[in-house]
Amino acid sequence: MPLEISDGVHGKIIIPEDIGIIIRNPLFARLKSIRQLGFLNFRSKMDDRIIECSRYEHSIGTYYLALKAIEASERNTEWIKSNQVGGKIPALYRDAVLLAALLHDIGHAAFSHSWEDVDPNYDHEMTSWKLIDKIFTENCEIFSHLRDNSNYGIDLIKALITGHRKHFSHFLPDQYRFIFEFVSNKYCQIDVDKWDYLKRDGRVFGEESLTDFEDVFLNARVTEDGNHIEYLCSDRYKIIQLFTTRWRFYRDYYCQTHNIISNAIFKKIIRRNFTLSELEKCYQADTFLNFIDEKILSAVKNDSLTRFLNKSVAYKEIPSKKFKAICECLPNSYADSETFHIQPVSKYFPKNKVCLYPDRGNFDTISDETIFIKKTINFVCSESDNVIYFNIKDETKYFQQDLCLDA
Predict the structure, then answer these.
(1) HD/PDEase domain: which residues (predicted)?
(2) Which of 124, 111, 375 is nearest to 266 (CA)?
(3) N or C: which end of the chain has fewer CB within 10 A?
(4) Strand 387-394 relative to strand 373-382, pairing
């Protein structure tokens, strides 16, 4: 029976039975317990409400958008309509893309990207490969065509998740190289993963008006040689909007002071409570179900710093001299500093050319008046009054340059 899911961003999503089997698998259901934005959601209060979203919702949303993007490409591409059976991309490649979209984050650690500060060597994409093998081993009745030719389709799913063709050891006809640009587009960075998380995060941040770039994907088609996905020239400003929105979210939300401090505290807690070998045990497929937000916090609940991850903790910014005085009064309290930087918006744009149709040459030149933001946050956790005192050293550099997105 098909599965019907009500999504806060995309509305009703109908899931086919074979996809539903994967969604019901405990390894996929685990994503319900992984916050999409790590610690950011603890304090991101918008319109007197806190919207929580999980990796589960994002993964299903990415699957749904991959289906929309595939159908748009089939509808808009003449050689697919006229030369492919039923006017569709072959099922082998179609299903591999859809499953890559669904499973691209299945290997995410507890607290999503916050774990990257704890263990920089943890690779959620490589972990996803192991979990995908486990899911297909446990459900041998589904997607038999992906198992033919020495698991050709399953290996393709894994490579599509990383976005690197070099990770696919089998032969892929040139005509279907474009499939690597749906889920994790390493060529021009326009993909359905960004489409979903920017829309989803935009809803959390109350910035939904910045995420109106659906036409970029719905008007796209495949190039004649099958090497790339190309985009309608008149949608070029929405492409620019996609990348500038991503930059704005980094500037205004992902790099908020409390989020950076929470990640630093979390890193300190985990590293002093777990050995490297204990962490590596969490990453194993047979113990991975317990590698979730709640279980990790429960394991460190008695650590003196854990309470500073709670949303009730107060944050107080103070001048540099006063901060030094407070640190001297709290000699045994945890004090640290974190430096972060945000590149100018032009650095968030593709390094390669964006394929447009009809060919109009380069995009219009746009003046990039954004800045290289660099800040160092010094903070101390005061256990006596449950306050985090912090001071920010701003090392931002101002400059202006012209931005021209090649086409």
Answers:
(1) 51-207
(2) 111
(3) N
(4) antiparallel
**399 CB-side CA count, 13 A:** 11
Cis before residue 16, ω within 30 degrees of 0? no
d(CA 195, CA 176): 22
Three-state SS at 46: strand
**Other C-beta atoms within 10 Å of 257: how many?**
17
Residue pair 137/286 in contact by the 8 Å Cβ criterion: no
Strand locations in 164-248 (E) = 221-222, 229-232
What the block records as the tokens of 181 is 């640009």
DSSP structure class, residue 227: S
Instruction: Mark residue 368 as left, alpha or beta (left: phi above 0; alpha: psi -120 to 50; beta: remaining).
Output: beta
Return the closest-CA partner of residue 63 out of 33, 18, 30, 126.
Answer: 18
> Does pTM top 0.90 for this prediction?
yes
Distance CA 34, CA 111 (A): 6
Taking the alpha carbons at both ends of the chain, their separation in whole angstroms is: 45
Strand 314-317 relative to strand 387-394, pairing: parallel
Residue whose tokens read 């070998």: 277
Listed in order, strand segments (DSSP E) in 268-320 are 314-317
Q: Which of 305, 328, 308, 307 is nearest to 316 (CA)?
A: 308
The token pair at 163 is 């976005």
CA–CA distances in Å: residue 342 to residues 120, 164, 291, 317, 338: 19, 26, 30, 21, 14
Residue 218 and residue 66: Cα distance in Å, rounded? 11
pLDDT in tens, 94-141: 999 999 999 999 999 999 999 988 999 899 888 999 999 999 999 999
For the sheet with 335-342, list strands across it.
314-317, 387-394, 373-382, 335-342
Question: Residue 71: CB partners within 8 Å, gap ≥ 6?
Answer: none
| Separation between Cα atoms, residue 10 and residue 199, nearest integer Å | 9
Mention every residue, 6+ apart, whose C-beta is less than 8 A from residue 214. 195
- 286's CB contacts (< 8 A; 6+ apart) are none
CATH superfamily of 3-312: Hypothetical protein af1432 (1.10.3210.10)
Q: Which residue has the tokens 């995309």?
A: 10
Residues 31-87: pLDDT tens digits? 999 999 998 854 444 455 556 799 999 999 999 999 999 999 999 999 999 999 999
